[in-house]
Amino acid sequence: MLRCTVKNFAYFATFLTIVTNIYIYTYPSFHPEQCSWECSNQNVASREDLTLLGKVKRYFGDVQKGWHGNHASANDNDDIHILAFGDPQIKGIWPKTPYVSRLDTYGNDYYLGHIYDMMQKRLKPQVVAVMGDLFSSQWIGDSEFHNRTRRYISRIFKRDPASIERIKQENLDGEGQYKANWSKWGDRFNEILSNINENEIANQELSFEFGYEDVYSWNPELEDFLIVNITGNHDVGYSGDATYQHMTRFHDLFGKDNYWIEYETNTTHPWRIVVLNDLLLEGPALQPEFVEATWMFLNQLNERKFNGSTILLTHVPFYKREGLCYDGPDTRFYPDGHTPETYKAGLLRSQNHLSESVSNQVLNLIFENGKPGIILTGHDHEGCETVYNKKSASAWEATKDIESDIFVKEITVKSMMGEFNGNTGLVTGHFNTDSMTWEWTFSLCPFAIQHVWWFAKVSLLVTIFTWSSLLFV
Ligand SMILES: *[C@@H]1O[C@H](CO)[C@@H](O)[C@H](O)[C@H]1NC(C)=O
Ligand SMILES: *[C@@H]1O[C@H](CO)[C@@H](O)[C@H](O)[C@H]1NC(C)=O
Ligand SMILES: *[C@@H]1O[C@H](CO)[C@@H](O)[C@H](O)[C@H]1NC(C)=O
Ligand SMILES: *[C@@H]1O[C@H](CO)[C@@H](O)[C@H](O)[C@H]1NC(C)=O
Ligand SMILES: *[C@@H]1O[C@H](CO)[C@@H](O)[C@H](O)[C@H]1NC(C)=O
Fold first, then answer.
1. Could you state, in order of their start, the residue ranges of all structural domains in the chain?
2. pLDDT band at residue 66, thresholds of 50, 70 and 90?
3. Which residues cross the membrane (predicted)?
4. Which terminal CB of the chain, N or C, has fewer other CB atoms within 10 Å?
5. Model-level pTM?
6. Whole-number Å distance between alpha carbons of 148 and 150
7. Ligand nearest to the CA of 269
8. Cβ(92) to ligand 1 under 6 A?
9. Residues with Cβ within 6 A of ligand 4?
10. What are residue 141's phi and psi, to 5 degrees?
11. Counting ligands in written order, which one lies closest to the CA of residue 263?
């Protein structure tokens, strides 16, 4: 009797395990258009007019295509393929954290890692960009920052954390934990800044080295694509919070916050990636010299008079009126008598968007050549698509539709967190040889709330347990 019940339950659990695991391991095939690179001669029936049978066929067609590895090799090999992940915001574990939350945080790393794995293997991107807010809080210590970076590298991106372990060994505190050596980083930063400000011809040895050319991997022995980590307010803080400590540990463990990489510069179709720390563009700032350095970066970028298309990667979206996206404009400052940090009175505390004038200045500096481009941002979690139309020599206006000959699209990438369904943004760049311009398209590939992933994993364990228990009843 008991044996019979257990056996029935085992069949039931097996069935659920198979269904849920097939789902989580083939989820992009349920949205094949959104989860594939844009192809210039694509011939897929559009979603609305498909019957159920049509949908099933489409699903199996896509799964089969995946088996043959055909999603990655889209028909045009000269296209540019970028995956963008919005605001993962991984949380920490503290001595008082209840066990359930600990388990949740642990599982969440692998949930995010599952999304990355699926999309990376399916699509073989050239660039993977994480749109800032890698972590959930800027108010954490150096050791915790290092520990989260280790989780970010090894659990989500499945890479060897040896490089950051080495950095830890070079920067130990008394208890053998990582401690950012901010006085060393700060001395170097200020030395470079004053060298550039004081000398007509700056000492070549002392520069921020913002520029790169034709970089396809930071570490060609290990990987054939780029991972770009963007600074978010939860990683380094808004300009009213950002300290030398914040900047040092981000540079130590994630790399530079401002740089450009130019590609195919001597061809008919040059393009570039610009990574911008736009948290440090406005003030009042705690360390105004950081803001100065960011503007220095933008001016150097502008002086290159680059004659191609630009992909701008940054965290905080550009100014737009209320109603276009989930977040409206909202900028806050620390009040007088803000305790215990009274020294922060009047400093920039938070912003949903850059201010209108800074938005115009940045757009003018980066998109001066009038070539089409694309901006990817994070920050608001809900996602949004807007167009910045150049309305006069120096003013850009955000709208839903294209309203000017010169325009740039801004995509606020919807968050990859479980609450927002674990999204991945896909950017395809295609060079149109008739118009001789790059064309950029974006699509959002959703997964599912984290409970679905949990259910698939737990039901696998339950199934194994139930079948094994049959050996004993
Ligand atoms: C970071 O990880 C190390 C090694 O596991 C551990 O000793 C340390 O306490 C952790 N730091 C924090 C702040 O939890
Ligand atoms: C920081 O770096 C400087 C210069 O390399 C070194 O002299 C100093 O001991 C380091 N400080 C700490 C706390 O490791
Ligand atoms: C971004 O971070 C990952 C993990 O630390 C690292 O592998 C990668 O090289 C970093 N990117 C840059 C540009 O430093
Ligand atoms: C492009 O041309 C310039 C000027 O001729 C040269 O300095 C540069 O090295 C070239 N870049 C590449 C990637 O070939
Ligand atoms: C810039 O690119 C356009 C094609 O988009 C080309 O016609 C023009 O000659 C280029 N200008 C320079 C200065 O190279």
1. 76-445
2. confident
3. 9-27
4. N
5. 0.94
6. 5
7. 5
8. no
9. 213-214, 265-266
10. -80, 170
11. 4
